[in-house]
Amino acid sequence: KLVSKVLFVFLSSQYCFGQASKSLLSVIPQPVSITVGSGSFTINRSTVINLQPGVNRQSLVFFQRYVESYAGYSLTVSNAFSGKNVISLRIDSNLAAQKEGYRLTVTPQLIELTGHDEAGVFYGLQTLIQLIHVSTNKMVSVPGCSITDYPRFSYRGMHLDVSRNMFPVSAIKKWIDVLALYKINTFHWHLTDDQGWRIEIKRFPKLQTISAYRDETLIGHKKELPRQFDGKRYGGYYTQEDAREIVRYAKERHITVIPEIEMPGHASAALTAYPNLGCNGGPYQTAKFWGIFDDVFCAGNDDTFNFLEQVLDEVIAIFPSEYIHIGGDECPKTRWKSCPKCQKRISDQHLKDEHELQSYFIQRISNYLLSKNRKIIGWDEIREGGLTTGATVMSWTGEEGGIAAARLKHDVVMTPEKYVYLDYYQSLNPNEPLAAGGYLPLSKIYSYEPVPAVLSSEDAKYIKGVQANVWTEYMSTIEHAEYMIFPRLLALAELGWTSKANRSLPDFLKRVRVNEPLLKKLAVNYSTNYDEITD
Ligand code: TNX
């Protein structure tokens, strides 16, 4: 008993007065450099947050909310610097290493956070939030430490498909909160697909009344299994107001929202409302099951381009992102092959085949977007028939598309399905809910290296980052989606931010455990099934 008492006193003194233990410095994604300091900074009612000129107060609000939720009071903000019991925030583009970077020093007297830019301050605060330690007597403190940090990649993303299943604005906001906490800076919003068109376009009201709905709710099926329908009409859409609110909310958290309008494939929902945009006039039906469908936007018909340009006009007005995602994936050429207008276009444009017609399609849309000062980003298949000048490629079928595009000096975001598709199974437990297939445990995402070794260092610069994709065919509730997304997204966050040399799976798994209370605090239904995965 005495021994344990002595040990307890020794250990707690180590924490209170000596060096903070390493496990208290658990941050995801792992910072560039993090060293343990002495003692800890205790937050109390007289702690003041000092904002140096130029620091945006908004970034601070998130930190204040966390402190308030733990301590029960909010901290005063002041422009005067007293030197003690202060959390001081400033921006200095010379000091902290690079874009989005920050430096954080915690001593018993002072927390000093210097961001290279506004985003740097914001990310430093996210680190601080993760470092907050609440003792049993509700004492709120931050362990002494010194951190220098900046991201490996400029693009760190999560994609969300809201066509197959949609989620309320409140859930999307909650997920955006989590993205911010783990320094993910891009939300790729997959708004249209065969199973439903989910963004309000005022010029085309039938997209709301017809394309936003399908006849039945599909409860998840595998092609080879019997389908389960509940017989109820399923659907809905986000109003432009909703979308603007998401953009605003994300921006406050340094997250860019990239909207995706799918073309030329995955277009059944749009064709159902506007059958003149298909090759054979329809009738079409918003898809009730998942897959790839032959009816696609007609590439020989100028109505298609007029429609898409008007849709994009409204999309651009809502989303200020540099990139507009135009899909481009999985477009069967069956209809174009037997469509006189498409064949005429092929011959008029001196194209070789339907693949080049796809390239023509993408090029035409890209030119339109370029004229509006936007750029296209699209899935691997935009390489078909020749890659459009200036296009960024999202490499999903594997790494080959990304490698080829980088060699052609095109920007690339790596999203290979085998490594970052969160609709895959996360464990071998037979009780896992039905998933799209595949096996993607936390450890496998973590093992992914976004820059293919075959690329020269010159070409490797075109790999702008990584993204996890959340296709929702099998995720019909918020809880289920969260179970699939978390904590696997935390591994992606670390791939996007942390250098290869600084990554360690056993250490990461420990840090995920330490982060669980934060996820719980955000009411995220994360999976706890990840420990068994050691292969
Ligand atoms: C392929 S990834 C798709 C999606 C599906 C997904 C299912 C991509 C560009 N297209 O339409 O939802 O597989 O994993």
Q: What is the count of β-strands? A: 22
CATH topology of the largest domain: TIM Barrel
Strand percentage = 15-25%
- Helical residue percent band: 25-40%
| Ligand roster | ligand TNX
Main beta sheet strand tally, sense and closure: 8 strands, mixed
Average predicted confidence as pLDDT: 92
Radius of gyration: 25 Å
> Segments where pLDDT lies below 50 for 5+ residues?
5-20
Shape: elongated
Q: What gap, in angstroms, lies between the N and C termini?
A: 40 Å
CATH class call of the largest domain: Alpha Beta
Name of the CATH superfamily of the largest domain: Glycosidases
Structural class: alpha/beta
Number of helices: 18
Q: Give the total of domains.
A: 2
The CATH level-2 architecture of the largest domain is identified as Alpha-Beta Barrel
Structure description:
The chain is α/β, with parallel strands linked by helices. The chain has 2 domains: 133 residues, 2-Layer Sandwich (Chitobiase, domain 2); 367 residues, Alpha-Beta Barrel (TIM Barrel), CATH 3.20.20. It is built from 18 helices and 22 strands. Strands 1, 2, 3, 4, 5, 6, 7 and 8 form an 8-stranded mixed beta sheet that branches. Strand 2, helix 2 and strand 3 form a beta-alpha-beta unit. Helix 2 packs parallel to helix 3. The protein starts with a helix and ends in a 14-residue tail after the last helix. The structure holds ligand TNX. The site of ligand TNX has 9 residues, from loops.
